[in-house]
């Protein structure tokens, strides 16, 4: 069961309010997602949601099943459209929690980490997919250490997340989302305060990442593969 939705905060822009308090309840009523462990999300302070990644619409599922506003990374070009349509899309993405980040250059990884770090140091909730891309084979793949870098540098609690059935909402080739049975399971928060001041250690970052991935594995029950999942364009090269 989801926690009771709080009253809309005064002074917040209209579009984010519509997303959180109108669109969110409508989506939950339509899909009726089964949500477990939502009480594991701390009510305040920085929180890093680390999730498996099954489908392109996973971000929306997490957004509408988490009681606090969640921020995600989004391609910067989505925010640069011109005219009324472009501005509306940019504002809608912002309301959904996306943070614009440039992709496809040498600084992309650093920019992504910095965007997440800012959300967390401001006391917000940031969500990340440690695998780096959605799983095309249904298995859980080795996590990239950016999740550990964020947790260690900000002191944020890490809440592992397991998504089930989201790949059925919009299967490959489907243009319109479909009804599907989905479930979201939030695990108990992981605290890495014992490694304070050691975020520059690659060995510590690897160890923390593996601990986070194991927690996701325990929640999801997926088969684990100790190799990074290549993106489709990487397989073709």
Automatic annotation (TrEMBL):
Please state the span of the N-terminal signal peptide per the UniProt entry: none
Show where the Phospholipid/glycerol acyltransferase domain sits. Answer: 47-166
Per its record, what are the GO molecular function terms? 1-acylglycerol-3-phosphate O-acyltransferase activity
Q: Name one GO cellular component term.
A: plasma membrane
Q: What GO biological process terms does the UniProt entry carry, in alphabetical order?
A: phosphatidic acid biosynthetic process
InterPro entries in alphabetical order: Plipid/glycerol_acylTrfase (IPR002123)
Instruction: Give the UniProt keywords, A-Z.
Output: Acyltransferase, Transferase
Q: Can the keyword GTP-binding be found in this entry's annotation?
A: no
Where on the tree of life does the source sit, at the highest rank?
Bacteria
Q: What is this protein called?
A: 1-acyl-sn-glycerol-3-phosphate acyltransferase
């Amino acid at each position: 069961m989801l926690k009771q939705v709080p009253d809309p905060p005064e002074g917040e822009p209209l579009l984010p309010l519509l997303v959180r308090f109108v669109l969110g309840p409508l989506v939950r009523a339509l899909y009726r997602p089964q949500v477990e462990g939502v009480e594991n999300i701390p009510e305040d302070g920085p929180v890093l949601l680390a999730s498996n990644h099954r489908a392109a619409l996973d971000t929306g599922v997490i957004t509408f099943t988490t009681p606090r506003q969640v921020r995600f990374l989004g391609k910067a070009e989505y925010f640069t459209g011109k005219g009324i349509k472009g501005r509306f899309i940019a504002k809608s993405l912002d309301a959904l929690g996306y943070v614009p980040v440039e992709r496809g250059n040498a600084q992309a990884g650093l920019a992504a980490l910095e965007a997440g770090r800012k959300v967390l140091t401001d006391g917000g909730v940031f969500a990340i997919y440690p695998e780096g891309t959605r799983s095309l084979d249904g298995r859980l793949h080795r996590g990239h250490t950016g999740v550990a870098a964020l947790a260690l540098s900000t002191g944020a609690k890490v809440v592992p997340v397991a998504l089930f059935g989201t790949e059925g909402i919009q299967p490959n080739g489907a243009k319109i989302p479909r009804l599907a049975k989905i479930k979201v399971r939030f695990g108990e928060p992981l605290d890495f305060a014992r490694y304070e001041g050691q975020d520059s250690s690659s060995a510590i970052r690897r160890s923390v990442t593996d601990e986070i991935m194991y927690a996701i594995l325990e929640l999801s029950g997926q088969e684990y593969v100790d190799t990074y999942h290549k993106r489709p364009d990487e397989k073709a090269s």
